[in-house]
Amino acid sequence: MSTPSRIAPLKVGLAGLGTVGTGVIRLLEENSALIARRAGREIQIVAITARDRTKDRGVDLSGYRWVDDMGELATVDDLDVVVELVGGADGPALTLARETLTNGRALVTANKAMVAHHGAELAALAESKQAALKFEAAVAGGIPVIQGLRDGAAANRIDRVYGILNGTCNFILSTMERDGLDFAQVLSDAQAKGFAESDPSFDIDGIDAAHKLSILASLSFGSVIDFGGVEARGVRKILAADIAQAKTLGYRIRLIGLAEIDGDNGSANIFQRVEPCLVPLSHPLAHVIGATNAVVAEGNFSGRLLFQGAGAGDKPTASAVVADLVDIARKETGPAFSMPSAELEKLPRAASAHRVSKSYLRMVVADRVGVLAEITAAMRDAGLSIESLIQTEAGDDGTALVAMVTHAGPEQAINDTLQALKHSDSLLGEPMVMHILGA
Amino acid sequence: MSTPSRIAPLKVGLAGLGTVGTGVIRLLEENSALIARRAGREIQIVAITARDRTKDRGVDLSGYRWVDDMGELATVDDLDVVVELVGGADGPALTLARETLTNGRALVTANKAMVAHHGAELAALAESKQAALKFEAAVAGGIPVIQGLRDGAAANRIDRVYGILNGTCNFILSTMERDGLDFAQVLSDAQAKGFAESDPSFDIDGIDAAHKLSILASLSFGSVIDFGGVEARGVRKILAADIAQAKTLGYRIRLIGLAEIDGDNGSANIFQRVEPCLVPLSHPLAHVIGATNAVVAEGNFSGRLLFQGAGAGDKPTASAVVADLVDIARKETGPAFSMPSAELEKLPRAASAHRVSKSYLRMVVADRVGVLAEITAAMRDAGLSIESLIQTEAGDDGTALVAMVTHAGPEQAINDTLQALKHSDSLLGEPMVMHILGA
What is the set of active-site residues of B? Predict the structure, then answer.
């Protein structure tokens, strides 16, 4: 079994030597012979760059040419591809990306923020220079979902794509459920163990999931990427009691990013939202535990496709980066968003008020006569009917917790209910609303 | 938004007009503009052929050139691709496949039997003629798992691939569980409703899953396809009582095709088996319900990847066929089994006797003193210890059903136990053994 050697190796420059960057180096060392068999040629890292040359990263970097100025990687002689693992929507990453493509070289990136904000510009630049732009690692870590949508589902009109796109949130929610703990406690445990960032807001406020969702939506719908159009709510306000009530009602709580084509007004509008949802136990996403990610795409011929796996981590993310390199080595590349930039449609944003779903509504209330009558009257006036309701003691302080699932109704009815109750002194603290993921 | 027109359309000949063939025609009609945007050119069916020209198939075929002799499709002028949906490992399908590739034309096939038996030969022929050979639709219907393994997981050494590969069996097992019915009754219901073939043996005896497994194994391991090396046992002997006992013990029963590299003897051997297994509820495959398929691949960097979706049906299978056509239209094709045929390794088959797993063992026994002592003594002598055991009445006839899960042990110990009990008159009928799918 000889490694094919008649074709020149693919020469790679690597920018960024954090956990993913060193993971890529380890992967290309450990699996090099196998990758050469699959790619038809060797894939060689030639040059590397990062902010700090002296830091010990646990891998031997002596065999690679060090480039001091990150921006210069774009012009190092003989490189075929630059792998950008620096991060950040703008700054050095974006500069390097632009210069790499301008020089007609392929760019592989794991940078979801940069793709979400500048993907359309970079894709157009890549096409004009006939250079490949690949970002499998930017969404859902090691899961080949970019390729699944771009190629595997290419025959389908996709009107809905959704999933669990943030491993940190899913880890926190699974742990809250398993151990019956509140959000804050699980978060600080996760931070202590290194599973969550010291500043976790990108993860727990849904921004990271929103970056990924905007990329998935563009690929799925053939639309111009629209990160600014993603509504995002995170998981900070979820109580252990919400998880317990949801369980009693037959659901699990998951942070779901969902994008769909809303054709209600006769033209195609795009709806994109990240929010905690109640997921019925009959849905596969209810069984996604821990830091795992999962993406569902609904094609008009394929039906529901599910892609699931590790959403983060050095090794899975390196697997996705190198999958892109293999595609480039094989010359199996094409438009980044599955079709030429000029073919992508700019879709208007859909409003949410008329969207119909079941909802979960939880309120902490004063435990006294007439409170439930007040709440249910507000719901009746808004045209919202109740499927199930649980009232329990909220604590030793004379408060009660009311949790309910409504029948399907427009979101406006929930808004109207909350508006009517806004100044009620029966409600203690802000009510929590979560939508229920449809089948 | 104009359809790109400067590039010539991809011209397709379609052989076989059953449900999948007519599905492909419907898909290419319904999604044609979208597919042209994604593929960069139009995909046009030019010529069609099937056994019976006069049959009403519910689609208008008048716009397509009819070819009387199926074999002639390989040489019709101007065709770029032949889609083979005739079926059967040999015969007209194989003749057409060989002639198509020999003529240097691309071949797309949904024919798992043909690929399992002749895939190595066809792949070598395709390479020698620089023609594409694609078979996404041959495994797991609409799920893009061939591509997921070939491209998405390309960076990984994969040592284990397994899944639910037959929708008919999964439908039967899910229905047995939901309704508490025995196998035979559910099968005849499924046949009456058209969910199962009138001769269901390919499905329920595991042959169909074995075809698919051998293809997945070759792609995953870089090994020469070895259908003859797949051990296959089906689902005929599963009782409603097995499903009930498994549930009590925390498992669901699924027909699992599993292939792995067995490195125990210092060299890489290949192990391939289709059999009903007990799947722990914590495993995602336990939650795959109905005719759905799901494939898990374990990469040394990606970790566990799961691909799930519709395993059969006209529309999902057509989605996979047209995904292959889009790849060909984009010229994103390469070696069929992910690497050149000459690079595929011929791996020796691994023996099963030393494989270690927990097992489920069920026996119907005479309900009298000493029976359990006889069984447990045989297990002790074979070195097999019991994790849990349930004895219940089997019926009104004075028989009992003993179901147990063993601790992990070599398969040989189960074989030895059964051998020791073979001539015991305490056992009524054949014992049932199912392995437990590891985490």
Answer: 212
